[in-house]
Amino acid sequence: MTSMDSIRREYERYPPNGFRRFTRWFTKRIPTRLYARALLIIIIPMVLLQSVIAFVFMERHWQTVTQRLSMAVTRDIAAIIDVLDTFPQDAAYNDIIRIARERLELNIAIEPPGDLPAPRPKPFFSILDQILSEEITRQIRLPFWIDTVGNSNIVEVRIKLDDKILRVFAKRSQAYASNTHIFLLWMVGTSLVLLVIAILFLRGQIRPILKLTQAAESFGKGQRMPDDFRPRGADEVRRAGVAFIKMRERIERQLEQRTAMLSGVSHDLRTILTRFRLQLALVSDGPELDDLNKDIDDMQSMLDSYLSFARGEAEEDVGTVSLKSVVEKVAADGRLRGATVTVSVEGADEINVRPNAFARLLTNLVSNACRHGDEVSIHAQSRGKWLTIAIDDDGPGIPEEAREDVFRPFYRLDAARNQDESGTGLGLAIVRDIARSHGGDVTLSDSEKGGLRATIRLPV
């Protein structure tokens, strides 16, 4: 049972509740990169904290101060109205206008009776308009008209009295806490400064992790590690970098030891096989000797194939090659085998691979297709960071249940597609080994031609 099957069965046994569904929904919508998530960890609490502070400030301080200022201005207007009603003998109202201007800092005008202007559109958000209107309604209790939108520095109030209209012009700062924006600007400004510092700090902390990731990816693809890589950053990141370097050194030492051992084994076995050939050459000819020579040739071929498979192409450096040239060369070799080979290449022509290993990868697959089919098509597509090559043939194909087994070393089918007199059962194993050493893979599926499709997918 695969891991996906076990996860699916576990999911069916214990379906997710509301919290799990919300968690999965939220996880799919947040950034996946560490840098973005770290920024969110800093930004979200900062925004929440500032929102709470701004709400409390506006609810408690700003509204309270504005209400008290508006209450004071309304009391002054109410006092002027009381004076006008108490001393009606001053027809010109010069003294009252002077007292309002000098003592109350209010400019007033007494106009003949008439109708008040139509109400002006209310602003979308104006705490002054709301509070000042409530205070005039509560203290004066007379028809009024108010304008807090026109001149940004002046607030105009018109009160309809019995035989006249009182116009009052007051400074906005007298009825409104006008320095609130300074608090908001300071709060937003300091937050931006802190955010810039956090971004610079996070970039310095994330960069070593990205370098370690690049080094691990390069090593996994069989490429050289970046020359400027060395453990940096926080202690945990440094320890991870040091552990990676030590792991890489151990793996390289094991590869070197294996290569040296295989070279020794190859030399010894080749010496024995050469001695067999010399001994058989001294014996007279016969059908038995022909069979023995054929066995020795098979042993030599199997030995060379196994050593090539075990040694791999890890020692080869990555280079830039022309995709079209490599595919055309492999296709030409396939045509020499008597098959009809068609080629199509799309996307970028230059790719970064290990040249010899990549050529051998294509050669093995195309030669297998040409050996078992008459028509072979090669479709290569290089887009973005991935190269996809599909090789189709019209041969007998491979049963679906055996498509993973054929990648095992020395595995051979009974009515095998890869079964021939010179086959060793290592061709597809070498193919997958080369593909995975590049960081990709090779898969088999049904072809539209009726045979087998081999799909190569490599990062380039």
UniProtKB/TrEMBL annotation:
Q: Which UniProt keywords apply?
A: ATP-binding, Cell inner membrane, Cell membrane, Kinase, Membrane, Nucleotide-binding, Phosphoprotein, Transferase, Transmembrane, Transmembrane helix, Two-component regulatory system
Domain of life of the organism encoding this protein: Bacteria
**Which residues does the UniProt record annotate as the domain HAMP?**
203-256
Catalyzed reactions per annotation? ATP + protein L-histidine = ADP + protein N-phospho-L-histidine
Under SMART domains, the record lists: HATPase_c, HisKA
User: Which compartment or compartments is the protein found in?
Assistant: Cell inner membrane
Q: Which Pfam families match?
A: HAMP (PF00672), HATPase_c (PF02518), HisKA (PF00512)
Question: What is this entry's stated membrane topology?
Answer: Multi-pass membrane protein
Q: What is its main location?
A: membrane
Q: Where is the Histidine kinase domain?
A: 264-460
Bilayer-crossing regions: 34-58, 182-202
**EC nos:** 2.7.13.3
Gene Ontology molecular function? ATP binding
Q: Which intervals of the chain form a coiled coil?
A: none
User: Main EC class of this protein?
Assistant: transferase
| Name by which UniProt lists this protein | histidine kinase
What lineage is on file? Bacteria, Pseudomonadati, Pseudomonadota, Alphaproteobacteria, Hyphomicrobiales
